[in-house]
Amino acid sequence: MLYDVQIPIVSYVINQAKQMENALRSLNYTQGMISTIIITVADIFSFIIPFLIGAILMFNGQIGAGTLVMIVQLSNDFINPVTMIFDQINQIRSTKPMWDKVEKALNFESINSENKAVRTFDELDVNDIAYEQNDKLVFNNVNFSIKPGEKVLLMAPSGWGKTTLLRLLVGQITPSKGQIKINQEVLNGNWAKAHDYFGYINQKPFIFDRDLEFNITLGKTVTKQQLDEVLAEAGLTELVKEKGLNYAVGQNGCNLSGGQIQRIEIARALLAKRPILLADEATSALDTKLSLQIHQTLLNNPKVAVIEVAHKISDQEKAMFDQIIELGK
Ligand SMILES: Nc1ncnc2c1ncn2[C@@H]1O[C@H](COP(=O)(O)OP(=O)(O)O)[C@@H](O)[C@H]1O
Ligand SMILES: [Mg+2]
To answer: Which atom of ligand 1 is nearest to the CA of 156?
Structure first.
């Protein structure tokens, strides 16, 4: 994951899964036990008692041995519930190694963002890159460069390959031609080195059904001062003042507006202290007024460089960028 918060997030997801699994497990266990007891009791009445009576009758010469053999064969019906009990126990045991691994993941220390070196960036240079997928050219001749704090807008129509271009920048995929250089070093397809430079602002950010704080920090430990600074820069101070950091945002952020969700996404990127923010049609789901407000937040922050890809944007918003590059030609 871009912000290296796999462990807190995985822990959260696993915790949820575990709770669900535990509930299911105890339900299954109870169900299994009850049905086993019922079958056993039923067998006692339908088999053991007839068997005992049959044996007595045979000893008394009232029934033949054949009848008793038949009764003994039916004893499989009695064995089944017994084996079922052992099956149940085995099933419970077999999940144990899995839960041991889960425990290990949960006991991982959460990453302190202070421990991670922040990348310093002097220049990003994209030199004549092309990208092919399944022998089909997605785009070629892409050239631009960006310096710290600069704001670049890349315009291209839907399906042109804008998202693909951003995936190339973070090193998730490799260009088929050209170089992506950061500080003069070619980082084509080098996720390990490249991704630390970038924050990513999605059109539809992923929101966890938890509180505001978790959604912003993604489980990382941060100081109050760091958090307050980021809240102010992302324009979230008012929301936090009104609702509190432990405000439950609801499933898919249903208790938040689209603009607030976008601000959370920006706060995440700022908290990760990445020097370049990639905005992938970050405001295309918002109305004109909200889109402008989000752009003001994003583009007036001198601490970060911004590369935004978009297919539609107002003239007023365009005017806020240092460079506009038309790619879709
Ligand atoms: N996972 C994928 N598998 C196959 N084709 C894809 C995939 N993702 C994108 N494409 C194709 O690559 C091209 C560029 O996609 P994309 O980068 O998402 O465009 P944009 O972001 O400009 O709308 C499109 O033609 C799309 O159909
Ligand atoms: Mg896209």
So the answer is: 22
Cα(203) to centroid of ligand 2, in Å? 9
- State whether the Cα torsion 215-216-220-224 is positive or negative: negative
Q: By the 8 A CB rule, do 156 and 328 touch?
A: yes
**pLDDT tens digits for 81-104?**
555 655 666 566 566 666 666 665
Q: Are 290 and 259 in contact (CB under 8 A)?
A: yes
> Is the CB of 160 inside a 6 Å radius of any atom of ligand 1?
yes
Closest Cα to atom 18 of ligand 1:
163
Supply the residue whose CA is at minimum distance from atom 24 of ligand 1.
159
The overall average pLDDT reported for the chain is 83
pLDDT digits (tens, 9 = 90+) for 205-250: 999 999 999 999 999 999 999 999 999 999 999 999 999 999 999 9
Higher pLDDT, 36 or 9: 9
Residue 51: is its pLDDT beyond 70?
A: no
Alpha-carbon distances, residue 186 vs 65, 179, 189, 235 (angstroms)? 89, 6, 9, 35
The SS3 call for residue 7 is: helix
- How far away, in angstroms, is 160 Cα from ligand 2 center? 8
Residue 164 Cβ inside 6 Å of ligand 1? The answer reads: yes
Which ligand approaches the C-alpha of residue 282 most closely?
A: 2
Token pair for residue 50?
């007839």
For the Cβ of 158 lying below 6 angstroms from any atom of ligand 1, the answer is yes
CB 224 within 8 A of CB 190: no
Span 303-314, average pLDDT = 95
CB 249 within 8 A of CB 215: yes
Those residues with Cβ within 8 angstroms of residue 134's Cβ, 6 or more apart along the chain or in another chain: none
Atom 6 in ligand 1: residue holding the nearest Cα? 133
pLDDT at 67 over 80: no
